[in-house]
Specification:
The protein has 353 residues and is mainly alpha-helical. The chain is built from 12 helices and 4 strands, in the order ααααααααααααββββ. Helix 1 (6-30) runs antiparallel to helix 4 (101-107), helix 1 (6-30) runs antiparallel to helix 9 and helix 5 (109-121) runs antiparallel to helix 6 (129-146).
Length: 353
């Protein structure tokens, strides 16, 4: 287990913030806020809050040491905003409106499963038997949790939350394409665009703005649970790849469920305990992963925040920033070595059978 790797800690911190946001969003919905309007307020709070952080960083002269978004990144960013910033939050708010908060929080484990499946099937990230067993346990827990029995089967609220998780799974894998760039800039743009679109559409369909206190509360929940959480998630993607980050992020629902039980006095049922046990097994199997083998780095040109470690032995051109960490375009020469690693920015290589 490489639990001290920065990517693992960032992914779990991201999960904690997002998981905690779920019962607070449920509380705001209980106060009469429209689900679609709340989705807009959450992301707008994220975007505006991070804009203030960005402006303060510039005013204080604090160097970001991060690569800016480039024109080639914009199509990926547009898809990220659509899937994760508009479709995902809307489906989640609709699901929260008719589903118990603790159940909703644990169902959000499906986001990690969707992220992993897309990463493995579409983007060909490496997977072994332990990771597959962990994914199966998470899925089994989600089925136990959402099944209502009788002819009704899965509730519509649960299905809406599952749809949100699929949208976020797509979002997470597309964000992986942007993970070398400044995470504050990514989260800022996503929050402003997604928040504005959701808010305008909700108001156009007749939603009413809530009182100022509820609006500010939604903005604060969005800043922490969507904005800061996303910044940490992007940084974790940089270190771990999409599938592993998704697995660690699956700890979010347990935090949300615990808060929901404390906040709303919801009962601790056998169904909830059985689903939790299955999901815990799935997450632990992922936490136990160890991956080490001889591998070759092909020549690569890119730009991202870095220090001069074993993977960054390059010369500097005039005008490159001094000090470390820093960011500038640089070239990797071919390198073959062996060490523990995840599919991060520098380890997206194929594997033999």
């Amino acid at each position: 287990m490489f639990t001290h790797r920065p990517g693992v800690l960032l992914a779990i911190a991201s999960a904690a913030l997002f998981g905690a946001s779920t019962p607070f969003a449920k509380l705001l919905l209980g106060g009469g806020v429209s689900p679609w309007l709340l989705a807009g307020l959450l992301y707008l709070g994220s975007g505006l809050g991070l804009t203030l952080v960005h402006l303060a960083r510039g005013a204080l002269g604090v160097p970001a040491a991060e690569a800016p978004l480039r024109r080639a990144d914009l199509p990926w960013l547009g898809l990220v905003v659509l899937s994760g910033g508009i479709i995902g939050p809307l489906l989640l708010m609709l699901g929260l409106a008719t589903t118990a908060a603790s159940t909703s929080a644990l169902l959000l484990n499906l986001e990690g499963l969707a992220t992993m499946a897309i990463a493995w099937i579409v983007f060909r990230e490496n997977v072994d038997r332990r990771l597959l067993l962990g994914a199966a346990a998470i899925l089994a827990g989600a089925v136990v949790l959402s099944w209502q029995g009788g002819p009704t089967g899965l509730g519509l609220g649960a299905l809406a939350i599952a749809g949100a998780c699929l949208a976020w799974g797509i979002d997470n894998n597309l964000t992986r394409k942007l993970s070398a760039a400044d995470p504050v800039q990514i989260a800022l743009i996503k929050g402003l665009v997604a928040g504005a679109v959701n808010l305008i559409l909700a108001l156009a369909l007749g939603a009413q703005m809530p009182p100022l206190t509820a609006t500010l509360a939604a903005g604060l929940v969005g800043l922490l649970g969507y904005g800061v959480s996303l910044v940490m998630f992007v940084l974790a993607l940089r270190h771990l790849g999409a599938a592993r980050t998704g697995a660690y992020f699956s700890t979010a629902p347990f935090i949300g469920a615990g808060l929901a039980i404390a906040m709303f006095g919801e009962p601790i049922t056998m169904q909830l305990l059985a689903a939790s046990a299955l999901m815990i097994v799935g997450v632990v199997l992922h936490l136990m992963e160890a991956h080490e083998h001889p591998h070759t780095h092909e020549a690569l040109d890119h730009e991202h925040r870095h220090v001069h470690d074993a993977h960054h032995q390059h010369d500097h051109a005039p005008g490159d920033p001094p000090g470390e960490p820093h960011s500038h375009p640089h070239r990797h020469t071919p390198l073959t070595h062996t060490h523990p690693h995840y599919p991060d920015l520098h380890h997206r290589h194929g594997h033999g059978v």
